[in-house]
Amino acid sequence: DDPGYFDCDLVGEYAIAGRLLELDRQGYGQLALNSVETSFAPEELKDEMRRGIADWVQKR
User: How far apart are CA 40 and CA 17, in angstroms?
Assistant: First the structure.
């Protein structure tokens, strides 16, 4: 996640991971949730992000 060094932004990294790991929408959601769970964000913000990710996964 260092676009200046790797010439790739976070969206690009998700795209690469998705191709290599053959992720579906739920897989991308789990990847995002893993990031939320391991972050140092306040719990209220984590809850908001969890809801947003769950909403995104449910939209088909």
Answer: 23
